[in-house]
Amino acid sequence: MVETGYRIDDGYIASHNGARSGDMRRDYESLGERLHRRGIGIEDIAARAAALTVALPSWATGTGGTRFGRFPGAGEPRNVFEKLADCATVHQLTRITPRVALHIPWDRPHDPGELAGFASSLGVGFDAMNSNTFEDEKGQRLSYKFGSLSHTVAAVREQAIAHNLECVEIGRALGSKALSIWIGDGGNFPGQVDFRGSYERYIASLKAIYERMPGDWFLYIEYKLFEPAMYSTVLNDWGSAYHAATAVGPRAYCLVDLGHHAPNVNIEMIVARLLQLERLGGFHFNDSKYGDDDLDAGSIKPFQLFLIFHELVNAAAHGRGAGVPEPAYMIDQSHNVTDPVESLLASVEEIQRAYVQALLVDRAALAGCQEANDAVMALRTLKAAFTTDVAPILATARVRAGGAADPLTAFRESGYRARKERERR
Ligand code: AFD
Ligand code: MN
Ligand code: MN
User: Could you give the number of structural domains in the chain?
Assistant: First the structure.
């Protein structure tokens, strides 16, 4: 049996909450009054806040680094078990992150059954499996230097397909229900890659994977405009992803990573389109200033995050077609200068905040503004929701679920990382 190591004591969380309970109650009551005047029931919003779930990326529990270097912190997880323990700690404090997304081969378990048992002992499960054909694994027969699922050589494509099927196999043993594919395939120079041929080969490879996936699994297709291919990327945008998903089959959906667009692209509109077309599989939340920066969600463009959730709440009100899954919310970040657990705690809170703010939009008033072409009042309607301080709802929902009133402070004051420094030499 694998050791769990130090875990934050539930009694400690209770005392952290106890010290804040009076203020929390007063803040919640006064916000409840103000929302009531706007015709909103705070209890309903708190219940919906508590029902949100966000998956954590195993790979974000350690320092990511950049291509210039990596500055790991002490006490970081050394293996998949320790990554799960850190994710479980995020869940313990926030109560809305019950699943972890794994990256293979980075997290390949020797014994998936043992890993599944370990996860359930921590109270967490598994989200989408993430394949990796953007780098070579030690001892790998053929190289992905010039691509994987879209490679010109059939044997390389077959190896990449087999790798994805291995991810599915591991995922089945863990209780996952989705495979997420992002490839770095593309070209660095004009003329290097045949745009048409590479896209055809990519879709054919996706089909080969899809056909062998269990019937209750979903395929998430993640696009990104550039990097590591600096001139042309095979799956570069949502249109290419949308076509690929429809070509592959009804259980293939597009995955929107917020960092995978050119600066200033209207991502909320892409989200609305994919929702309307019923091909939005889910998100990789993060934030960025320039490119695929993988910064903490909500740290640079919180209004954009709110507008995305506004579209999600809108679409949910319209209902979903038969068989169309609820969008899967996942985080995909790289932490270079922060404690990874702290960044995850902060990001989870920002995602939940944006969602709750989006729930407060007066949709009837907004529709009226849109019909009347009243741009000023339309924006003001959105801003009224966005500028509402919903922190009391977040704290109350967390505490009711057994989490911490202030997860970041609770984490810091628990001494978790110092304990892990001693455990994880
Ligand atoms: C990539 C993608 C992605 C992938 C990750 C690997 O966003 O989802 O799994 O980085 O670090 O840019
Ligand atoms: Mn991603
Ligand atoms: Mn990315």
Answer: 1
Find the CATH number of the domain harbouring 104: 3.20.20.150
Ligand 1 centroid – CA 17 distance (Å): 36
Distance 111 CA to ligand 3 centre (A): 29
Q: Which ligand is nearest to the CA of 60?
A: 1
Q: Can you tell me the distance from the alpha carbon of 224 to that of 256, in angstroms, rounded to the nearest whole number?
A: 9
pLDDT digits 0-9 by tens, 253-300: 999 999 999 999 999 999 999 999 999 999 999 999 999 999 999 999
Q: Tell me, in angstroms, the distance from the centre of ligand 1 to residue 34's CA.
A: 42
> What is the strand order of the sheet 280-285 is part of?
56-57, 99-103, 125-130, 178-181, 218-222, 252-257, 280-285, 328-331
Q: Is the pTM of this model over 0.70?
A: yes
What is the spatial distance between Cα 95 and Cα 111, in angstroms, rounded to a whole number?
28
Phi, psi of 246 (to 5 degrees): -70, -30
Summary mean pLDDT of the chain = 98
Per the domain annotation, does 149 fall within a domain?
yes
For a pocket test of ligand 1, which of 134, 179, 286 has the largest count of ligand atoms closer than 8 A to its C-beta?
134
β-strand partners of 220: 180, 253
* Best probe residue, ligand 1, of 257, 258, 292, 330 (max atoms within 8 Å of C-beta): 257
* 136-187 tens-digit pLDDT: 999 999 999 999 999 999 999 999 999 999 999 999 999 999 999 999 999 9
In a domain, 189, yes or no: yes
Q: Is residue 273 part of a domain?
A: yes
Three-class DSSP category at 63: strand
Q: List ligand 1's pocket residues with C-beta within 6 A.
A: 59, 130, 182, 222, 224, 257, 284, 292, 332
For residue 42, is it within any domain?
no
Q: Determine the distance separating the centroid of ligand 1 and the alpha carbon of 169, expressed in angstroms.
A: 21
User: Domain containing 273: what range?
Assistant: 53-359
pLDDT in tens, 314-335: 999 999 999 999 999 999 999 9
